[in-house]
Write a structure and sequence with these properties.
Largest sheet: 2 strands, antiparallel
Number of helices: 20
Radius of gyration: 22 Å
Strand content: under 5%
Oligomer: single chain
Length: 510
């Protein structure tokens, strides 16, 4: 049992109260502690990724109580990958916040650490009730971050966000209670053994609970028809918070992958692939709605929000095919879309800072400071987000299209992914030409005063570099993701590792 597995949860959990008690009145000290924590978290996540790359499923049993009776954390290739993505995104976004956004309200850095604690816990837990606990931790922290800096629009969006997630939490508890009532367990690995044994007269209750959980995860992932909270929330949140929230929707996608392959996958008997008939059509509708929203957006932040919705539709379309090849494609697209979505929110904020009175509205206005630099950054981000070659979005969509070829709905999938990509290109092209081309010919100017934004540009550069790196190293990354997808579908290996039963050799899951 490796004690390092719990450190991604413990580190931010301990750093947050330290920031509250020792650094709340000293912004410099708070920044030093917060950056140090994120750097250490990234180094630890990379180390755990290297450990998980060997193919073993590692567990940490709290209090040394074995599963399914005790709380267990599980590290495999997938959870390690999500830890690295979270830590890398968190560090880049934190650098952006250090340019002044963290001064707009109290306790930003403490809430930031609590947010990371909840996200990391959700990726590592092997127990449904603990998943609920970590959901609540990350949601409570996100409530505070959402209204950071105040303002009527932000508070209004924050109230809507709180209400939606409170309803989601209530449904989560109801769903877990239904599943527990017929299986007698909340451990994910143990649940995978119990689901095929559920009596015929209890199948309806089990399926109701499982589909209710799918609805809860759909809320987190912003799928139609429970996507309505995202555009207002993300577009009105502080830029670094919205950028960090790019990983929040992926928590919902991760939970869908983990539950509906492990417990309701091929070995689930009458409950096998329970989510598949529901998930694919909903994901395709989400894709269409998101990209139409990109075309209709009137603000750059709003455009980024709908791009996130559209990307979740694309991602979960691949997940809904429920094959190792489609999951590997989905994971590549997940990495890409998280970085692309985050950088769009940061660019929108940098544009808004330089256009007082116009903010990030898609309207023609005088040329602003550093328009060429931001125009170049937006151009790269738009190429990535729309899936144009040569960046990672193109590779991700190509992998998804290839994975969809054997599926019965291949024509619908290809038609909608390609047509919505064209719609996204038009929407991003309209926004870019309005902000950076048409505005160049307008007379007048905006004031040149303001923050230097040096760290903000570093953060944008890091995220864009990440997208480029995904393209350059697409081969090695794809090979790791192929192995990850194969491991996820080897549910017997996961169950054996968690429940300490006979485990096949690690090499068999390659």
């Amino acid at each position: 049992m490796s004690h390092w597995i719990i450190v991604p949860i413990l580190l931010p959990a301990l750093m947050a109260p330290i920031l509250l008690m020792s650094a709340r009145h000293d912004i410099v000290l708070a920044r030093v502690f917060s950056v140090a924590s994120c750097v250490a978290l990234l180094a630890l996540a990379i180390s755990l990724l290297q450990t998980a790359a060997g193919g073993d499923v590692l567990t940490y049993e709290l209090g040394n109580w074995p599963a399914p009776f005790g709380i267990v954390l599980v590290l495999d290739r997938l959870s390690a990958l999500m830890l690295v993505l979270t830590a890398g995104l968190a560090l880049a976004v934190l650098l952006y916040a250090l340019d002044g956004a963290d001064r707009q309200g109290r306790h930003f850095h403490a809430l930031y650490q609590f947010q990371l604690m909840g996200i990391n816990g959700a990726f590592l837990t092997g127990d449904f009730f603990n998943l609920f606990v970590f959901f609540e931790v990350l949601l409570i922290a996100s409530y505070g971050l959402m209204v950071h800096g105040g303002g009527p629009a932000r508070v209004k969006a924050g109230v809507q966000y709180v209400i939606v997630n409170l309803v989601g939490s209530t449904l989560f508890l109801m769903a877990v209670a239904m599943i527990y009532s017929v299986t007698g367990t909340l451990n994910m690995a143990d649940l995978a053994l119990r689901v095929p044994e559920v009596a015929a007269h209890d199948q309806a209750l089990l399926h109701t609970g499982a589909l209710l959980l799918l609805l809860v995860f759909a809320v987190k992932a912003a799928l139609v028809p429970v996507h309505f909270w995202l555009p207002g929330t993300y577009a009105n949140a502080p830029a670094p918070v919205a950028a960090l929230f790019a990983i929040m929707t992926k928590v919902g996608a991760y939970c869908i992958v983990r539950l509906y392959i492990l417990a309701f996958g091929a070995g689930a008997g009458e409950s096998a692939w329970l989510a598949a008939p529901w998930l694919l059509p909903v994901a395709l509708v989400t894709l269409v709605l998101g990209m139409v929203g990109v075309l209709a957006a009137r603000r750059l932040g709003q455009l980024a929000s709908f791009a996130v919705i559209g990307s979740m539709g694309t991602l979960l379309t691949a997940v809904a095919l429920f094959t190792p090849q489609s999951l590997a494609a989905a994971l590549y697209y997940l990495l890409h879309s998280t970085l692309a979505g985050a950088v769009l929110f940061l660019i929108a904020d940098l544009v808004a800072r330089r256009r007082p009175g116009q903010a990030d509205g898609l309207s023609v206005a005088p040329r602003f400071r550093q328009a060429s630099l931001l125009g170049g950054a937006f151009f790269l981000a738009a190429i990535a987000a729309t899936g144009m070659p040569p960046l990672s979005g193109f590779i991700g969509k190509l992998l998804i299209l290839e994975a969809a070829r054997p599926h019965a709905a291949v024509l619908w999938i290809w038609a909608l992914i390609l047509s919505t990509s064209l719609i996204a290109i038009v929407g991003f092209g309209r926004a870019g030409s309005t902000l950076f081309w048409k505005s160049a010919g307008e007379s007048g100017h905006f004031p040149l005063e303001g923050a230097r934004d040096s760290l903000a540009h570093v953060a944008v550069g890091l995220l864009l570099t990440g997208s480029v790196a995904l393209t350059v190293f697409a081969g090695p990354v794809s090979r790791y993701l192929d192995a990850t997808a194969s491991q996820v579908f080897r549910t017997d290996h996961y169950i054996a590792a968690v429940l300490r039963t006979h485990s096949p050799p690690a090499g068999e899951i390659e």
